[in-house]
Amino acid sequence: MKKKPYLSIALAAGLAVSTLGAQAIYAKPAESSQQVQPFNVFDNKVLNNINVENIYNNIEYLSRTPRVAGTEAEHKAIQYVKEQFESYGFETELQEFTFYGYTAPHTVELKVDGYSGEIKPKSFTYGMDGTASGELVYAGLGQASDFNSVDVTGKIALIQRGSISFADKVLNAAANGAAGVIIFNNAAGDLNGTFGAPNDAYVPAVAITQEVGQALVDKLNNGENLTGSINIEGAEGGTRTSYNVIATKAPTNKNKGKDTILAMGAHHDSVPGAPGANDDASGTAMTLELARVMKDLPTNMEMRFITFGAEELGLIGSRYYVSQLSEEEKNRFVGYFNMDMVGSRDAGHLVINTVDGNQNIVSQTAQASSARLNGEPTPIQMGGSSDHVAFYEGGIASGSFIHRPLEPWYHTPEDTIDKISKEKLQDVAEIIGTAVYDIVRPENQGPKAERGKEQKVPHLYFEQEVK
């Protein structure tokens, strides 16, 4: 996407002053209707210092291997991020937290005597190792009442997907003495399921397709006796450790600085098997670069640059971070800018996700920034599923920057450095960098942070409502 370094008079007429009140500076318009207006002068302090090669090179380093939370690979990435922050001169800390981690089994086997077709069983997340063998018994949907009319003691319960959770199906079967469970899909295609949480009461359980499951039910209904065996090996679960990396910059002039905090960040972990170049080495690398750019710029409030662990497991790192903030700290936060998947050549256009779909200081300043840089504001969409959610839940204005629709390589081994677009990286870094600096620059004498999910600031760039 080509940059537009100047805005037309028609657009400039709709622009007034900086988001938080400082006067914008424009060139004197000429008589020609084709005359254009320059950026605000303060934008250039950011634009002239962004180096997209730094972002790209950090993505390349981080995405050499998957960075699953709690693993040695993630810990190496954490140390790398910390060292980069420190090389820029930041005071940096590692915030440790623990969580329940799970590794899927390497071996999942199901054999059924009397069935000659291919089965291809799959495991359930949070299911553990084990073996089971015995007669197959059809137990309907696996609800508690389904076991009133069948005896599954020491046998393998064959259960259809639907009505209740996978975990409840397995626990109901186990409570009635089943040695193992087979759950088959209720629609075409593979069944990729999770139990949602660990439980010592689970018996060995596998998932199969609707086609195979229905074929087994038909055989049982025809009076055939089927016996089966389940073997699951390599699953691991237990308490693991990860870290958030936090770099802090104090106001340039402590005597004149405002007692407020602005943060930006991304998650540094990835899913198993995925190098995570876009998800989310791209956001981590952009956080590093914008921290480098901001380090020597004059700023009037505290800034925090954060990379979070265990985002892929349920925003664990960011929720822990917010949970550790005092009420006084939460009240000082102006907002949080999140960067998640900001560089894929194969994804769609940039959008700003806010949890409730409403405007806040993050979306408003970023929209104003993109209007100055590109001629139109970046659209807002309602969206969660990333670390900005944790800040929203803590009453802090937040937004997440992402390209949608997602790339086809999302959460796959193909999420590699060769799919990264430097042009997209440059575009997002410029939009976020200038938006953030608009808030933290010393000339800005805007209001202090106002705590709450409904936090708003007047949008002074546009007279009309911005969608």
Features:
467 residues; alpha/beta; Aminopeptidase; 2 domains; 28% helix; elongated; disordered N terminus; disordered C terminus
Question: Explain this structure to me?
Answer:
- The structure is a single chain.
- The protein is an alpha/beta fold and 467 residues long.
- The protein folds into two domains: 41-102 and 237-440, Aminopeptidase; 106-234, Glucose Oxidase, domain 1.
- The protein is 28% helix and 22% strand.
- The chain has helices spanning 9-12, 41-47, 52-62, 72-87, 166-175, 210-221, 277-295, 316-323, 327-332, 361-374, 388-393, 422-440; strands at 7-8, 36-37, 91-103, 107-113, 130-138, 156-160, 180-184, 205-208, 227-233, 236-249, 261-267, 302-308, 333-339, 349-354, 380-382, 398-404.
- Strands 3-10-12-11-13-16-14-15 form an eight-stranded mixed β-sheet, with helices on both faces. It has a six-stranded mixed β-sheet with strand order 4-9-5-6-7-8, sandwiched between helices. A two-stranded antiparallel ribbon has the order 1-2.
- α10 links the parallel β14 and β15 (380-382).
- The model is unreliable at 1-38 and 449-467 (pLDDT under 50).
